[in-house]
Design goal:
Layout (H helix, E strand, L loop, with lengths): L17 H13 L3 H23 L2 H18 L10 H31 L11 H14 L2 H12 L4 H8 L3 H21 L11
Helix pairs in contact: 1-2, 2-3, 2-4, 3-4, 4-5, 5-8, 6-8, 7-8
Length: about 200
């Protein structure tokens, strides 16, 4: 199935959170329901693409990894919920692992190329995936629950700041600051790991 990045698709609003609604799609995806998969993709790809681009620093590579990520979602949909994770945490950890695996493959390829060419340049240090995964999980856990809700509503439901403010009983200024804080926490973590490419600067 050919995927293309689109603006986030608004989910039905009701008493359940946007993340809960996204989570309910996964059992249907596990059964091969294409409509559920498309809805899931359109509701989540914006945030995940931004994170992948921050780590990989290249639009084409980020799009390739995004496609691979959603194929993994198909395969692993039936496993969601076994560790009592929120959909946002589950997806971000999966996206991070995919991106790091791609960087590791590139590192291996570059090192092999240097070896064959006789270049004596010292290869870049290896990437500690386990430690980085721990840091990502810790960063997600450290985001206050209210800010977690804001991210879920913004990226899973496509709500505007004003709509989120009404939904949560907060002022638009509080929502704007909360979203900025949460995203800076994530992007700041990736930058501290050495992934400092600015989204959109490379194609």
């Amino acid at each position: 199935m050919q995927l293309s990045r689109k603006p986030t698709l608004s989910l039905v609003r009701g008493q359940h959170s946007a993340a809960d609604q996204v989570g309910t799609l996964l059992p249907w995806i596990a059964k091969g329901d294409e409509a559920s998969f498309r809805l899931f993709f359109e509701a989540t790809n914006g945030l995940l693409f931004g994170l992948l681009l921050r780590i990989l620093g290249h639009t084409g590579t980020a799009e390739e990894v995004l496609s691979e990520l959603y194929e993994e979602v198909r395969r692993r949909a039936a496993q969601f919920g076994r560790q009592n994770e929120r959909p946002l945490t589950w997806l971000i950890l999966m996206a991070h692992r995919r991106a790091i695996e791609r960087l590791c493959r590139q590192l291996t390829t570059n090192t092999e190329t240097l070896r064959k060419s006789g270049d004596k340049t010292k290869p870049t240090s290896s990437i500690n995936i386990t430690e980085q995964r721990r840091l990502v999980r810790a960063a997600l856990d450290a985001i206050p629950p209210l800010h977690h809700q804001m991210i879920e509503l913004a990226f899973f439901s496509g709500m505007t700041n004003l709509e989120i403010a009404k939904e949560l009983g907060q002022s638009p200024a509080v929502v704007e600051a909360g979203l900025r804080y949460a995203m800076l926490q994530l992007f700041g973590l990736f930058k501290s790991m050495g992934f400092s490419a600015e989204p959109g600067t490379q194609t």
